[in-house]
Amino acid sequence: MSHITIAASERAFEKVFTLVRDNFSFYKTDTKSFGPFSATYTVGGKLSGGTLDLHDDGTVEVKTLDIVWTQLKLKVCLDLPGFCVGGWCIIPDPWNGCLVGVPRICIGGPICIPLDLSGLVSEVNSIKAHLKPVYFIDPARNPAWSDLEAEFAGKPNKWRIFLDPDWVSVDPIDVPASIGNLFENLVESAVENMLPSWLPGWAKDIIMAALGFIIDTVKAILGIADAVEDWLSDLIGNQLDLLGFLETAIADYFAAQYPLYEFEDPYPVLPMSGGLIPVKIPIRDLKASINSKEMIVEANVGA
Amino acid sequence: MNLTLDRNLFTQMGLDSGSLTMLGTLVHSFMKPGEYRGVVHDGPEVKAVFTISVDNHSPDAQVSIDLASLVEGTDSAQPDGAGCCPGSGAKSHEPRRFVVNPRGYVLFHVSKGAGGYYVHVRRADADQKDMGYDSRSMAEGDVFTAIVLRPGAYSIVNRSTGAQGELIVAYPKRAERRYQPPAPLRVVCSSKSFEPSRLKTDPGQGVIFECRAPSRIQIKLEKPDDGPKATEPVRPKGLLVSRPR
Description:
The structure holds 2 protein chains of 2 kinds. By secondary structure, chain A is α+β, with helices and mostly antiparallel strands. Chain A is built from 7 helices and 14 strands. Chain A has one domain. The longest helix of chain B is centred in the first third of the chain and has 6 residues.
């Protein structure tokens, strides 16, 4: 039988989990090239919600945990091939084609389509984890220090109990269908921005009408075969591998960065008082387990 | 590829057959063989000179004369790069020479710049009383082609006959299909009227005026059409929530 046993009810465990969850945040920015186009993204976010299930097999299951993308900015850049509009024949020439035609106007070059999907909420489908005690020695601790000296220096050894995920399953980001229209407007704006600012609105409308198929062209370059929102979801989640990044970030965070509990070792029983040094007992063989009702931490008092 | 766009295409409203700009073209036939001497005018100022040889033996049924290039002295068709006019940057004082069959025609156009030119062409051996051909007054058989881009309502006036007409240029509609202007409209300029006198075109659609009487066609913007108000792309409001499918 262990010398020390500590139990935390499911409700207490949930409160601890909430504290850990709320401390999680992620941020990443990068650019990736896909040949015909490149995508630059800046993402950031936090976790919210979620329900906990404690199981008798020693595992914890977290479900419907929201990922709030406080920042999800994407810029897709591509090289628009040169297009010429105009050149329509007004007076046909019976000898060699066309005698009089409208002057040709050529347009083309790099364009960027900025998309701001900040505020989007996606979901962690489930996290299945078990408790993992880890003995922590502060890297800044001088190896020659005694435990007492380490405590005075604020660098005592610790037992830490992490929620170590066996798996993290993040759902694909379901981009709302309304983004399709927004995307097409942004493409047209990007092309219009290539036109000189002095050009009157009616002239831009003529050129844009003559280009007509520009949206289809951009979609073809980007490889959008079906709905824009599906393509975006695949781009963000798979091609830019942000789902993989998130799964890794969440797993690493729970497994190694932010413990559910931590105990000093040796554990202070009586604090320093009246010139007397604190009374501390060494903790050994710490084990953490879980059942459907509570979390249990057991340990022995060592030499 | 960079944008190649001449500002004059979109800033010059209206056309005048007696003051050619980029969107107007004039076709004339010199039916009598012989040597002709032409002058390009910008108002009272002489900008360039050229010669036209109307030759029965010429295989050329047409010749296009770019007035802008003549004025700049950079006519690419010039074999030795020679220009036409003193003070115009020309490499030679020899006027540019064009050759055409008397059954053919000469087309005057302006390829770039503000334009505003007219031409005066006389036979080299003409006597003093022969005033020659002045493009400010088109002759019977001439053709003036106008391309009106700016949407709106225009008045059409034949300054030589007083005939009047009107032209409505529709506002372009953005569609999935690439816009292609319809075939040009043809208008007969008789001694009293335009036929038809009411025209409706799409942007970039040509209007071909066939002169059956001395004509000077002027097209003036009366009421611009700026189309529907532009709508800015709007980001969907509210929280974008995604859920598993």
